[in-house]
Structures are given as structure tokens and as C-alpha cells.
Specification:
The protein is 70% helix and 0% strand. The protein contains 5 helices and no strands. This is DUF4398 domain-containing protein.
Length: 142
């Protein structure tokens, strides 16, 4: 029984997962999804390096696992910042696009309107409109 407990205890020590490392991995994944490699490549590279160091440290003893937690927190912070900078860059690009569209619409509104198309010419009677119309023929009214 003691041998079984010793094996179980030793196995659980190896299988211990540092939750901060998992959180850092998720943060790096979110930064990847936000295209941080395009908008914040240095921060994302730093986050990946920190994550790799944390993963390596998490395989060690107790003090290494403590260090893994610290490294993972730093990696997660770098990844979160990379994601935020990426989202900011995308938002700025969208804002500039909208401003350009608004400027174009304003320019269109400031231009004088084009004259309406010419109507086809028609021949009108020579009678002026101010003359009275001829009286209707008098009838017996029945």
C-alpha cells in the first residue's frame, strides 16, 4: 500500500500543471487570432519566447514551477498587449477609412447640383393663356 501511494504521489508531482502556463497559451492564441504578428510582431515574439520558457520551467521541480508561473504571467501580459495593439491598429484603419468616406460625401454635397436634363421641345399653341376661353354653345339644357 505504501508503495502504491508513493508511486501515485510521484506521478501526481510530474503531472501537475501550472495554470498560468495554460492561461499564457490561451493569451498567445488570442493574440494570434487578432493578427498580432502583423501589427505587434515584437510583443508577440516576446510572448512566445516567455511561454516557451514557462513551459520548460513547468517541467521542473517546485521552484522551477514557481518560476514558470511568473514567466507565464509575463508572457500572458505581452500577448494581451500585442492583441490590444493589433485591435487598436485595425480600429484606426477602419476609422481612417470611414473618415475618407465622409470627406468624399461632404465634397459631393458641396458641389453645385447639375442642371436637370433638358425637356424635349414641343409646339405650344400661339394663344396666350390670359385670354378667356370661348363660350360653350348655348343649348336648350335639357
Amino acid at each position: 500500500m505504501a508503495i502504491l501511494l508513493g508511486v501515485t504521489f510521484a506521478g501526481s508531482a510530474v503531472a501537475q500543471v501550472v495554470p498560468e502556463v495554460q492561461a499564457a497559451q490561451q493569451a498567445v492564441d488570442r493574440a494570434d487570432q487578432a493578427d498580432a504578428d502583423q501589427y505587434a510582431p515584437d510583443l508577440l515574439a516576446s510572448a512566445r519566447q516567455g511561454l516557451a520558457a514557462a513551459q520548460t520551467a513547468s517541467q521542473g521541480g517546485r521552484s522551477e514551477r514557481r518560476q514558470a508561473a511568473v514567466l507565464a504571467q509575463r508572457a500572458a501580459a505581452d500577448a494581451d498587449l500585442a492583441r490590444a495593439r493589433s485591435q487598436e491598429a485595425v480600429a484606426r484603419a477602419q476609422l481612417e477609412q470611414r473618415r475618407a468616406e465622409i470627406a468624399e460625401l461632404q465634397q459631393r454635397l458641396e458641389q453645385p447640383p447639375s442642371p436637370p436634363p433638358a425637356l424635349p421641345s414641343t409646339t405650344l399653341p400661339d394663344t396666350p393663356l390670359s385670354e378667356p376661353l370661348p363660350a360653350a354653345p348655348a343649348g336648350d339644357g335639357t
